[in-house]
Specification:
Blueprint (H helix, E strand, L loop, with lengths): L25 H31 L17 H29 L3 E2 L5 E2 L7 H6 L12 H4 L5 H26 L3 H7 L4 H33 L9 H8 L4 H31 L6 H15 L6 H18 L3 H20 L2
Antiparallel strand pairs: 1-2
Helix pairs in contact: 1-7, 2-5, 2-9, 5-9, 7-11, 7-12, 9-10, 9-12, 10-11, 11-12
């Protein structure tokens, strides 16, 4: 999900949707203006909602949250997590073993590493050189076979699908009303669609402001701090991968990651904690902390925490999992579009 907030740190340089072709230029300026308008609209919506709540007085907005009847237990959360971890270890090890038998991996520019040139654009394959020839052959980097981005992507996708399958099975068997109630709650499609659009509009300026403040604070505390981008955005910016790899990366970030993360963090973990913790707000704080930590980059923690609080709140307030799922998808799609346009 961290793919979503990293655009704040991205440099303005030409990018293309399939990793090659003619960079977008004129239309990018129009879309940037439109994006800024949407950003301002989201900020205004957030301010109006906060102002409305303050005028009404210190009333807990989750006091009338709908009840979600289920028989989830902590064991199912552990099962889903273990299923994901086992799948990613087994799949990753298998792919790395196969790749290691074929050839050693070769690093590209930046921090991206590719284990096989089969996944590169034809012209990029010709640019690959023996970059390790000037390195010490006894060094660790010259002898270690590193997993390629494609291998990691496949292993992560398989593991996510396995974990999501566990969540769906648990929902079918243990959620009152089965999978339809688990996903949609009691809301009509027009209601959860409206919630999703408003939530996505608010999420963008909220996370940008939080991330901007975090960056300023970190630069003040440690001017030498390295603000790394997510590996997916780095790989897309390289422009060396074959079109099907680029499309797969975008589908993974824009579709697979939001669906699987919301199934686990909101649908399974947050719901399981409801009978165990008295305060819904305490649950949101705990789940959001785990969500932000799971993405692994310190400078994104506050923004990801804020995003997760919004996602969790929308789920608690409505009982409809489709709302945080769609907000998450729209949020990631916005970042991928900005990267595509080089904004």
């Amino acid at each position: 999900m961290v793919q979503s907030v990293t655009s704040f740190l991205a440099q303005s340089q030409p990018h293309t949707f399939l990793g090659h072709g003619v960079p977008v230029s004129g239309s990018a300026a129009v879309i940037e203006i439109f994006s800024q308008g949407v950003w301002a609209l989201g900020l205004a919506l957030g301010a109006v909602l906060v102002g409305r709540w303050m005028i009404k007085g210190p009333i807990d907005p989750l006091s009338n949250a709908p009840h979600r009847s289920h028989s989830f237990t902590p064991e199912v959360v552990v099962t889903a997590l273990l299923a994901y971890l086992v799948a990613i270890v087994v799949c990753g090890s298998l792919l790395q073993s196969i790749e290691g038998m074929e050839q050693s991996s070769l690093p590209l520019t930046g921090d991206t590493v590719v284990g096989s040139t089969d996944f590169l654009r034809p012209e990029a394959r010709g640019e690959m050189t023996e970059v390790d020839q000037n390195q010490n052959p006894d060094s660790e980097s010259a002898n270690t076979v590193k997993p390629s981005l494609v291998e990691n992507m496949i292993a992560d996708a398989v593991a996510r699908l396995v974990g999501a399958a566990v969540c769906v099975i648990v929902a079918i068997r243990s959620f009152s009303g089965g999978l339809p109630k688990f996903l949609f709650g009691e809301l009509a499609w027009s209601q959860w669609l409206l919630w999703s659009v408003v939530g996505a509009l608010i999420a963008s300026p909220m996370c940008d402001l939080v991330l901007g403040g975090t960056v300023v604070l970190i630069k003040w505390l440690d001017p030498a701090y390295d603000f790394e981008q997510h590996s997916t955005l780095v790989a897309l910016s390289e422009g060396v991968y074959a079109w099907y790899v680029v499309v797969s990366l975008r589908l993974s970030a824009g579709l697979l990651a939001p669906v699987t993360e919301e199934l686990f963090f909101r649908g399974l973990l947050q719901t399981t904690l409801l009978p165990l913790v008295r305060s819904r707000w305490l649950i949101l704080v705990g789940v959001s902390s785990v969500f932000a930590l799971a993405h692994g980059q310190l400078h994104f923690f506050p923004a990801l925490f804020a995003l997760s609080m919004l996602l969790g709140y929308s789920y608690e307030k409505t009982g409809c999992l489709m709302i945080p799922l769609l907000i998450h998808m729209l949020f990631n799609a916005k970042t991928l579009l900005m990267q595509y346009l080089g904004l």
